[in-house]
Amino acid sequence: MLAVSERPAPQTSGMRLACHDRSLVAIGTNDREDSMEVAKTTGLPHTQDVAAIVRTVETDAVSGLSSSEARQRLALYGLNELARRKPVPGYRKFLAQFASGLVLLLIVAAAISAVLWWLERDAPVPFEALAILAIVVLNALMGYVQQERADRAAAALRQLTAKSASVVRDGRLVQVPAEELVPGDLLSVEEGETIAADARLLELAGLQVAEAPLTGESLPVAKTLEALPASAQPADRTNMLFSGTAVTSGHGRAIVTATGARTEIGNIAGLLAATRETRTPLQLELDRIGKLLGIAVLAIAAIMIATLFLTREIAGMAAVFEIFILGVALAVAAVPEGLPAIVTVVLSIGVQRMAKRKAIVRSLAAVETLGSADVIATDKTGTLTRNEMTVRQVVTASGTAMISGVGYAPSGEILTSDGRPISGGLRHEVDDLLASGSCANNAGLRQDAGQWIIKGDPTEAALLVAAAKAGLRHEDLQSRLPRVGEVPFTSDRKLMSTVHEGSELGRQTCVFTKGAPDVLLALCDREFVEDRESRLTEDRRRDILETVEQLAAQGLRPLGFARRNDAGNGEQAATCDIERDLVFLGLVGIMDPPREEARLAVTAAHRAGIRVIMITGDHPATARAIGAELGIGTAGAVATGGQVGALRDAELDELVLRTSIFARVAPEHKLRIVEALRRQAHIVGMTGDGVNDAPALKTADIGIAMGITGTDVAKEAADIVLADDNFATIVAAVEEGRAIFANIRKFLSYLLSSNIAEVMTMFLGVLLSGIIGLAGHAQDTLALPLLAVHILWINLITDGAPALALGLDRVDPSVMDRPPRAPAEKVVTPGMWTRIGATGALMALGTLAVFDGALPGGVIEGSGSIAYAQTMAFTTLVFFQLLNAAATHADDNSIFSRQIFSNKWLWLALSLSLLLQLCVVELGPFQAAFSTVSLSLFDWLTCAVAASSILWGREFLLLTRRSMRPAPANLRSRS
Question: Has 649 been annotated as catalytic?
């Protein structure tokens, strides 16, 4: 990171910036009318040298803008965002609810009904016309509310994925929302970041940028600082950074020259704005189901209307018109036009629920795919592990000490291998070694807001924590043994040494050295034993090297420690010549410990039929040890990136079948592993964080980027971003994804079965009119189980709120006890269609039975009028559909289980629907509009008991299915 000066940013003394033709010019606040003329004489940003561009934009190349100036410029230029399509006004959204052809037909029908009433004056007011219009308007209001909720949820989803940028303001490097960048900001860019605005480079170090999104250039472009000709095209402006491109390597600083629509990518903003939002496969399939159902219902309605014309005596236009309204009402009620809006709302709310569990979904389609994922290929460091190096063992001449506690919190105990506190010579040796590790150390450790924060190398920080657990504070050691020299670590030497003033130890200086055990051991001729130095024999050297191998086999990173006394003058000692004649102190075993929640998450994934593959750049032994702790790769097989690279595709396909741990893997190997898994029809979720991981993330069915350590490029390529970089969050996202899909299936099953029940009630009522007691009412043209207004009302109170409430069911823990959904499996399976049809038939037959029992004649003798029988059938079907919602909510659980009361929104919706039905049946004004009559308490109980058959029938089938089900076999191991 480049150094940042603390000197304040210069003030602009009333000067502001204007942008013309995407070039910046400085103009006075009173000279705006002259700005175009000034722009003609001022060079484009890429034509100016560094000093000139700094003067042009009135900023400071070190301190950046002041916060107050940035706010003023933000007010002048607006947010740094591309032009968006203007939001659709609320009134247009509401009017769009009437755009359906069937709804327009209903409105026309209501108008004709009103005309007929005016001509005949057979009632004080046109009840039928008013009832139809009221229901149409209420339906439109519900559709509008659902659309608004969907739009708000989508806006919240966009907010979750908002980007940020690093800028220097007030002399300090800070993170600001990318939309708040302004011309003149001093932008800092690093490898893996997506550039948020157009900018002129001031400083760079090995900076290369992928500009394919803008220019189509397939290779990264090496950036320069030199001014370029005005004729240079965007692809040739190597001294510029462009919004939307990504840094592939290096870092640099640049001055923002254009934001929002004035950037180069803003030129194509019109094309972007015109792009239609893509629909997910689920939404497309639901559209298909809706169309097929609509065609079927229209056909049934046509048959029913034709049957009425053929079997009834039609007298006058009023009768013809009544039949026409009935057919249209049946079609409107049966076609689930609100389904797409409900699906969008449920998906979006589910995505927000996932965000609360730290999984930020960037694509709604990923929610669907999660339910089918059967392989999760995950990184190790920081995802399966804590990304907090921890000293676990200390091995000295007198034995082994175990250090408890994980992470950077300096809390834990140092115990012997059998759990007793260390003492005597072992204690002396461990203290000496840990003091050495704390001295030969450049890391820092501090507590901030209850969390321990490290500065510097994680391995060195782990040594500070281990010393603190032994009561050796780093600050005290620095005070007692001031450092006077250092020999830094190099990859050639594999060592690091520090020289300290040693007067407190009775010596001129002392040296502490740490590094690779085999290299360090070769430089030692003695060993520290209890409180004295002992000659290091060859046998002892072999024992130490065997211990190194044992630590490595346990997945621990071995590190050796030594010291030397009286190394001479500190300035003279700070060379690698001091690394000789050392006294060997011992070894530590360090590891990045597994997350406790990751162990549980891996178990949950296996239970859910998901195979977990670990892919890491770490040593094979470390990978094997972590895998053993977490239950990954129980057979112990580990493949390396070298093996992956050397195999042909067919051989790699076999390898990935039997291997679940891959070590020393490079990004290109990740891509090949994903491709091999997908060739075998697996649905793969792949994690990644680096720029080079982007191809693998794109290739995987579900790309999962790290939110903390991940680069912007990786996040852009991913479908899901983990806010906490935790493997358990991936499994939680799978659980939420499965729950969302299960809820969508629930309300689909409910809606379709309820709508089919309405259609079958009417269709069978016409076909069976001679059996169910309608023969004696043949003179009544519309002597049918239900009137058109009844069907529309049922559709209004049962299709909206209860269906949406079903989509909000809580996560059922049993979703993780089932295998993944097959990718080719339809959202409504053949088995579901069978249950939907059977449920619809049961509701229709039960409704017709109550209708028959209310009329004289028929199979069940009754004595009521046609209006009474229709009211009974009307109420029974409403009860049926409300209880159907409760049964669908219970899913595979008994209705007598506590699970039935877990969704308060559903019970609120059902209670409201029941209350509205009570009003329609019992209140005088509604009776006139809906042609209903009052019912006795016994009648209400009769309707409820008849409708409860859907619950008893479901319970019987559930018991039968459970008794016939064989004992469940464990899901085959996928590890």
Answer: no
